[in-house]
Design goal:
This protein is α/β, with parallel strands linked by helices and about 400 residues long. Strands 1, 2, 5, 6, 7, 9, 10, 11, 12, 15 and 16 form an 11-stranded mixed β-sheet that branches. It contains 11 helices and 16 strands.
Length: about 400
């Protein structure tokens, strides 16, 4: 088991999803179990499914001095930075610590691939990208982090994490190591993923896309609803009212797109997160479930929660609200978990009507209001890329 780690202060956080920009929109949706999913209208040949689409990206290009970075993903990244004044917190951290001492760790699964797809539809007579799309830095998996680093004027470590749907949960683990090793004094973490053809048609080819709004843990669930989101958090040393207490990471290596049938990797991530936090399952008051509404993922996660947590724990999945935001799922789930600590607003499981018989009493359909001191957030990706995060209350910063 790993050793306990000193907690890190979460000085600011935000999330922008299909329910709107910022934490107020997210909290309102949680409190009313409101879904932001809508019939798919993405691409010229929309699949018959539902999506969690962020409004306004088409009409809001990046500022002119960043036109070389302009694409749907980076537009959402920029929109997300404005929400809850997060950009001001980021710039203030740069002033406190220095540009070279603030790390940037961002998760994404597709980055700017939507722009690359579009460029391929407009090849010239020589089979080359059109002149305006010949932007090498834009067409890389690191496009997101490079753009945000430039936008914030940072010069510290800059890392892209791409481990499918656990990407922007694992950023917290990378940030903790950077700060503990003295390679940075603060870290801006987060994730951004946007809808694109590769995602929609790729998941459809795996027969994982639902023709109706997704229903996590429902006895009649039919698959996932894809979404897009941007979110960020600022981590610093010292005490604060919200803290990262622990993290656990594992890799099943069981199957390319199916979790281990007994959830061994997911349970290892849970155990390591609890060990680093120095708490047991009995201390967890709320669990934000990964809960994608796919058959096997929900089955494995429900079994894990049922065997490890008591009946009083409140657990829910917000995928029916935001859609599955892939590389941004971890940061959205972290924001939902931090809101539970911050406001006592505990998410239910929107859209779900009849829980599968495999589910224990922990999984709740309706939201609730209550005081919790320690919460858990699960993120499980393709290939068994698992990450569990433990957040908790701390002392106010001096």
């Amino acid at each position: 088991m790993p050793s306990r780690i000193p907690p890190l202060r979460i000085s600011a956080y935000t999330a922008t999803t299909a329910v709107g920009p910022g934490l107020a929109a997210l909290r309102e949706a949680i409190a009313h179990n409101r879904s932001g999913l809508r019939p798919n209208d993405f691409s010229h040949h929309p699949l018959p499914t539902w999506i969690g689409r962020v409004a306004g990206l088409e009409d809001n290009p990046l500022p002119s001095h960043w036109q070389a970075w302009d694409c749907r993903n980076n537009r959402l990244a920029w929109l997300g930075l404005q929400a809850d004044g997060f950009i001001d917190h980021a710039l203030a951290a740069r002033e406190r610590h220095g540009a070279h001492r603030v790390a940037l760790v961002l998760g994404t699964s597709t980055s700017s691939i939507g722009a690359t797809e579009e460029a391929y539809t407009r090849l010239d007579a020589d089979g080359l990208f059109p002149a305006g799309s010949r932007l090498p830095r834009l067409h890389t998996p690191h496009s997101l982090a490079m753009f945000v680093q430039e936008a914030l004027g940072l010069a510290g470590p800059c890392i892209t994490v791409s481990t499918a749907c656990s990407s922007s949960a694992k950023v917290f683990a990378d940030a903790e190591r950077l700060l503990r090793l003295g390679l940075a004094d603060a870290a801006i973490v987060g994730g951004v993923d946007t809808l694109c053809g590769s995602v929609l048609f790729g998941f459809n080819s795996l027969e994982l896309v639902s023709p109706e709004p997704c229903r996590p843990f429902d006895a009649h669930r039919r698959g996932i609803s894809l979404g897009e989101a941007a979110g960020y958090a600022l981590l610093e040393r010292g005490s604060g009212p919200l803290q990262l207490l622990g993290y656990g990471e594992s890799s099943d290596a069981h199957h390319m797109s199916t979790p281990h049938p007994e959830g061994l990797g997911a349970e290892r991530a849970l155990d390591d997160a609890l060990a680093r936090a120095g708490v047991g399952c009995d201390r967890i008051g709320y669990v934000n479930l990964h809960g994608t509404a796919s058959a096997k993922n929900d089955e494995v996660e429900a079994a894990l929660v049922a065997r490890r947590f008591g009946p009083a724990v409140h657990a829910g999945s917000t995928k029916g609200m935001t859609g599955h935001t892939l590389g941004a799922a971890g940061i959205v789930e972290a924001a939902v978990s931090l809101l539970a600590l911050d406001t006592g607003c505990l998410a239910g499981t929107p859209n779900t009507q009849v829980l599968d018989a495999m589910c224990g009493p922990q999984i709740r359909l309706a939201p609730a209001q209550g005081h919790v001191d320690v919460v858990l957030s699960n993120s499980f990706g393709f290939g068994g890329n698992n990450c569990a995060l433990v957040f908790g209350r701390g002392e106010p910063a001096r």
